[in-house]
Amino acid sequence: MSTGPTPGLPRSKEVKPRLAVFKFASCDGCQLQLLSCEDELLTLADSVDIVHFLEASSRIESGPYDIALVEGSITTSADRRRLYEIREQSKILITIGACATAGGIQALKNWADRSEFLRCVYANAEYIETLSTSTAIGDHVRVDFELRGCPINRFQLLEVLQSLLVGRKPRTPKHSVCLDCKRRGTVCIAVARDAACLGPMTQAGCGAICPAFNRGCYGCFGPTTQANCDSLADWYIRDRISAPQLVPLLRNFNAGAPEFRDCGDRVDPNSDQGEVL
Amino acid sequence: MSGKQARTIEVGALTRVEGEGALRIVLEEDKVVDVQLAIYEPPRFFEALLRGRPLEETPDITARICGICPIAYQMTAVHALEQALGVTITPEIRELRRLLYCGEWIESHGVHMHLLHIPDFFGCDSSIDLAKRFPNEVNRGLRLKKIGNRLLEVLGGRAVHPINIAVGGFYKAPSPADVRTLIDDLQWGLDAAIEVTHWVAKFDFPNFSGDYEMVALRHASEYPMNEGNVVSTSGLNTATVDFENHFQELQVPHSTAACRQCVYLVKQRISLDLWLGSI
Q1: Which one, of A156, A135, A240, A162, lies nearest residue A195 by Cα?
Q2: How far apart are CA A105 and CA A75, in angstroms?
Q3: Cβ atoms < 10 Å from Cβ of A61
Q4: pLDDT tens track for B8-42
């Protein structure tokens, strides 16, 4: 039985937990999910005090914060310093989305030459400060809870916030997309249509939408618990697509998630770690 | 006081805007002598990372440039690829894409007005603050936004980063039954949008105009939201494919966003002005 909010959060009914939202390299889509809680937004604003959320409010208060939602990945040294300060000021730090939990699509630069990327995009590359990698928040500071997805599911976000307020463990599924396809009654497209679907190795949370729209899952929610990526990858390469076709599928929005990263590197014919399959 | 008194106003972070920016204004006495807008979003290198990847992924990847307007990038991506491949889409797909784009416009305008801009007209920090004074208006705006999202979900699979956009069309056509469920809400939404327009028209807008070149799309027979020529107030009228022959990217040291050489404004209102001027 829960007897109050999560330890560390204010216990008095008069004092609301201070919520802050921070952005690093990202698209804004995950923090938008907070604003997309159209039916719950005003109720939520009664339960927490939103004291730092640049996209939604001009009220900017300095820390300490009770709950920090962090979107985006670390791609500059200035952002890394800003993250250390946020961590110091925050009791509970929650990463929201694939950029914050795995480095995002911009982590593709981890496989590239930084100066070549700079020259490709900018005429005056010397004006731009960027690290050679895009990394997850958890690679730099302690993270208290990770919300997966590209974008996150707003109901999972509400579940996490609600859980913190009442002091229970958030119930966010860790099973694979496959289970949600069965629940929806979607015929398995990996079996029936020979699609290279990442559903068996991807964590649920999106509602298994891609297979329901006749296309394979492309892994927005990152690796599921105990995903056997290698086994599935080998089967797909044996049965339906070539390794060069599978690599970009493993290496997209969660390219930096260790399970996807290692599997992609293993099957990549151009990688140092690659095996000949 | 003697001599010119210089003052600098530094805004470290602009709030309630899509994206991130800082503003530096230098004044001498009361005259503005310099303004610098610094977009400090870290670069993410989309142009570079798309190279060598399967073209089918392009609409999925470019969507991630912006979670607030993914359809804009998805549509641009599929149009560019279809032109490059010589693919012609059917009139039905064109209409469905336009409807999908309407979903994003309804959602994005709902956000922009109610959550981002309107609080400024009443000196409120946020829409949550605004809702204390105008609960019905804020709730009406949130419901409009939700209807836009619902349209995106039915046609695109989800509201942020839709998954149903393919080069050549869609992965799956929406079921007529699902689309029909939207009709009542959209009818309510049309009336609500007109009410919002009447409400906003009464706001006290600053009387400000400058010597700008304004750029928008123009289409011969319809409001140009997803197709048309690039036109400007100085008389430019060119096909989108020639865009780069008329506009040049320019980088400034204080900002990570590439600017265009001629200062120009792009806004829905300008689009409307230029369109109305053409008929």
Answers
A1: A240
A2: 12
A3: 13
A4: 999 999 999 888 889 999 999 889 999 988 888 89
Q: Report the interhelical angle of A258-267 vs A229-239 (nearest 10°).
A: 40
Taking the C-alpha atoms of residue A19 and residue A130, their distance in angstroms, rounded to an integer, is 29
**Residue numbers in B near A35 (CB within 8 A):** 111, 115
Q: Hey, of A105, A148, A157, A217, which one would you mutate to test binding to chain B, going by the most B CBs within 10 A of its CB?
A: A105
Q: How far apart are CA B238 and CA B72, in angstroms?
A: 20
Q: What is the mean pLDDT of chain A?
A: 93
For residues B243 and B258, give the distance between their C-alpha atoms in angstroms, rounded to a whole number: 15
pLDDT (tens digit per residue) in A65-103: 999 999 999 999 999 999 999 999 999 999 999 999 999
Chain A: residue whose CA lies nearest to B117:
A56
Query: What is d(CA B86, CA A22) in angstroms, rounded to the nearest whole number?
Result: 43
Q: Are residues A60 and A67 in contact, defined by beta-carbon separation less than 8 angstroms?
A: no
Nearest partner of A107 among A139, A133, A79, A77, judged by Cα: A133
Q: Looking at residue B132, what is its pLDDT?
A: 94
With a pLDDT cut of 90, the percent of chain A lying above it is 84
In the sheet that holds B264-265, the strands lie side by side as: B237-238, B229-232, B213-218, B264-265
Terminal-residue alpha carbon distance, chain A: 53
| Residue carrying the six token digits 């919300």 | A147
ipTM associated with this complex: 0.94
Report the alpha-carbon distance of residue B126 to residue B116 in Å, rounded: 7
Our measurement of the distance from residue A110's CA atom to the centroid of its chain's CA atoms, rounded to an integer in Å, reads 17
The number of beta carbons lying within 10 Å of the beta carbon of residue B161 is 27
Q: How far is B269 from chain A (nearest CA, A)?
A: 23
Residues of chain B contacting residue A149, judged by C-beta atoms under 8 Å apart: none
Contacts for A174 with CB less than 8 Å, ≥ 6 apart: A203, A204, A224, A225
Whether A193 has its CB under 8 Å from any CB of chain B: the answer is: no
What distance in Å separates the CA atoms of residue A46 and residue B69, rounded to the nearest whole number?
Answer: 29
With tokens 């959060």, the residue in question is A9
Find out whether A259 and A231 touch, Cβ atoms under 8 Å.
no
Beta-sheet strands, E only, within A9-161: 18-23, 49-53, 65-71, 90-96, 145-147
Q: Which of residues 205-234 of A touch B (CB under 8 A)?
A: 206-207, 209-210, 212-215, 218, 220
| Spatial distance between the Cα atoms of A162 and A47, rounded to a whole number of angstroms | 9
Is the pLDDT at A274 greater than 60? The verdict is no
Element (H or E) spanning A263, and its range?
Answer: helix A258-267
For B232, phi and psi rounded to 5 degrees? Answer: -140, 165
Q: Tell me the two tokens of residue B67.
A: 């979670």
- Any B CB within 8 A of A63 CB: no
